[in-house]
Amino acid sequence: MADPVEPKLPRRRWYWLLLAPFVCLLWPPLYDRVAPELFGFPFFYWYQLGWVMLTALVTWFVYRMARDDG
Amino acid sequence: MVNVAALGVAVVLFLVVTVLGFAASRWQRSDLALLHEWGLAGRRFGTLVSWFLIGGDLYTAYTFVAVPALIFGVGALGFFAVPYTAIVYPFVFVVMPRLWSVAKARGYITVADFARERFDSPGLALALALTGILATMPYIALQLAGMKVVIAALGLSGDWPIIIAFAILAAYTYSSGLRGPAMVAFVKDSLIYITIIVAIAVIPARLGGFGHIFSAAQHALAARPKPGSILLAPGQFLTYGTLALGSGLALFMYPHAITGVFSASSQRVIRRTSLLLPAFSVVLGLIALLGFMALAAGIKTASPNAAVPQLFLNMFPAWFAGFAFAAVGIGALVPAAIMSIAAANLFTRNVYREFLHRRCTAAQEASCAKIVSLIIKLGALLFVLTIQPEYIINFQLLGGSWILQTFPTVVLGLYTRWFHGTALLGGWLAGMLAASWMASTSAFTSPTFALPTPFGSQTAYIAVYALAVNLAVAAILTVALDAARLPRGVDVTRPGDYV
């Protein structure tokens, strides 16, 4: 048996942030448009590619904030 | 016609990975006659190796051929691979460290091991193992199909190149286990990154920029007998969203993905790897756009799968086309090896040791896995040499719907024991039957199903509909079986196993 330790108060409330990519990516009417374009990419394409990077950033942020809890 | 320069480059690269694959047995040397050493590389991989390994494992040769082919064929709908491979990592970040934790604490090699102890149900464990093996077989065959595309593009004909490539793969997987594909993954991923960076630097400039590529692609798609578009039609919204969601939830239920996770050395490694894996998703998004570039370049091919290889031959000097083809071909070797190892682990642990040879020694267990990995690869080879590729793709689509039916046991079971083990087995069976029936209504050619509802017909990914059936049946049966006082069995995992 491991030493009895006080249960740490989990800082898992930050985990809710991880729902953002699901909401923003799984409902196509939000982004199914050509305008505004970026570097010749229709909105549909740069928005989703942008969210790939944003998802990584959000996850990294959650990792930093919730790290104490292993 | 054989393309000598391209073939020369591809053969040299293939020889390099062959040497690496065999040398891998000496890497972090230990006793390969133990299943967790052969099949999980001793659970010792750090963030860098895990990133290369899991990235090389998930982004398969077939993905790199099929995703741009789908974009080339139908337009925007094919881009679902991007939201799919974005949402999967927050999911992995939250769930997989917990699964790893219980697996490490209790010595699990497969998720069926977990189901066995958590729900005290050999039947549920067997169902999970068979689903995993069944869903993996056509996936391995598709890696071979991806390889066949590039071998054909190199100008070789006949079956012997693929037979040689697979014999070598089988030999080093047998001798090195998971260390083999882990080492080859370094080469594979590097080749893929170089190829896509060069392709994105060179091809759009030669086609007049991205703005022109998208408008030319729109014209070409609209002129098809069955017109496509670079945007979704309103009727495709639900299909697009459920394809992304269902594929995202299913991906880490596949045995080869779980094997990658279990080989990590700590939970921290899994979390950090899931932060870094989206780099592959960006690459996948750019590769998807190669489908539009092929449209803009006016490429016409008999099969959409050949569009991107043809684009490379038109745009690049022969030697670099060979480099790109080698990237895809070697790209097939890594997932094929890990898939065969994962399926062999399932058979060994949850069929052989559970039902056929209960008192087997550790050495017998490992040698069973090695032999089964050979048989599985041989089966996949026969599959690809004898069955039309369209059928293999249909099997794979069905496999994705099947593997998602293990989700309630594996993921929900990780957090709650509310479900009765026998009810989960009933839900699984209902989900499998529902998925197979829905797929049969399109003669196994479409991953979607049009469900008649009071709000009109709703077309969505079969896997998601089947999961809803699965969950409903599991919940109802849980209530019913508890009311009938059917014993639940003993959960031998402890709260401390889930950190």
Keyphrases for this structure?
heterodimer; A: 70 residues; mainly alpha; 43% helix; disordered N terminus; B: 499 residues; Sodium/glucose cotransporter; two-stranded antiparallel sheet; 21 helices; 2 strands
Q: How would you characterize this protein structure?
A:
- The complex is a heterodimer of chains A (70) and B (499).
- Chain A is mainly alpha-helical and 70 residues long.
- Chain A has one domain.
- Chain A is 43% helix and 0% strand.
- Chain A has helices at 20-25, 43-66.
- The radius of gyration of chain A is 18 Å and the shape is elongated.
- Mean pLDDT of chain A is 83; it is low at 1-7.
- Chain B is mainly alpha-helical and 499 residues long.
- Chain B has a single domain (4-405), classed as Sodium/glucose cotransporter (Up-down Bundle).
- Chain B is built from 21 helices and two strands.
- Chain B has helices at 4-23, 35-40, 47-58, 61-74, 81-106, 111-118, 122-153, 160-176, 179-206, 209-222, 237-251, 255-262, 267-276, 278-296, 307-315, 318-356, 362-386, 389-403, 407-415, 421-440, 462-483, and strands at 448-453, 456-461.
- Chain B has a two-stranded antiparallel ribbon with strand order 1-2.
- In chain B, helix 18 packs parallel to helix 21 (462-483).
- Chain B is globular and about 70 Å long.
